[in-house]
Amino acid sequence: MERHYSPGRTWQSLAVGLAALLDLGDVLDVGSGDGAAAGYLAPYCRSLTCIDRNPRMIEAAKERLGRHENVRTELADVHDLPFEGAAFDSILLFHTLTYAEKPQRALEECARVLRPGGRVVVLSLDAHEQSEITRPYGERHAGFTPRVLKNMLGRAGLDVTFAEVACREMKKPHFQVVLSIAQKAKPASRNGNGKRGRA
Prior knowledge:
Blueprint: H1 11-19, E1 26-30, H2 36-41, E2 47-52, H3 55-65, E3 71-75, E4 88-94, H4 103-113, E5 114-125, H5 131-134, H6 146-155, E6 159-168, E7 176-183, E8 189-190, E9 196-197
Parallel strand pairs: 1-2, 1-4, 2-3, 4-5
Antiparallel strand pairs: 5-7, 6-7, 8-9
């Protein structure tokens, strides 16, 4: 879009248009920050819960999203989520895992509170060697390759449907972003013959 500009044709307008196609149910936004991404999704969620460990970010999110009655903001740690099991239909981890002290534990907690058939969507920097740039932002881990993310999600008990580099920054050092999508399997159900089948 940067190369072929026309009035109104921006990444922001594209995001707003694509969000309108969504029907997300009960959503958990982990590491929501100031709620910028959540603001695009809120109208298309039955409920949207934004959590972050930073009190200032939660206050900013509360102010930004206050007009949405279906949104709540909460100070919480992804390593020990204060929710019952199977509480959410969708969980978003947008650039959160590289900041988590224990990424595997974070994914396991997300899997615990995800409903059967629900999805976890992860955006993360690809593995890189530019920690001198990212460390000042609080990054604990220098990105994750698609293969590593896929293995981590699998160990958390989720079925990965997609794990690839989704985009690459134009400016040096050309950071890449990995998109991973994983689903929680529905429990086996009994069919009419009394035998177990897949739901």
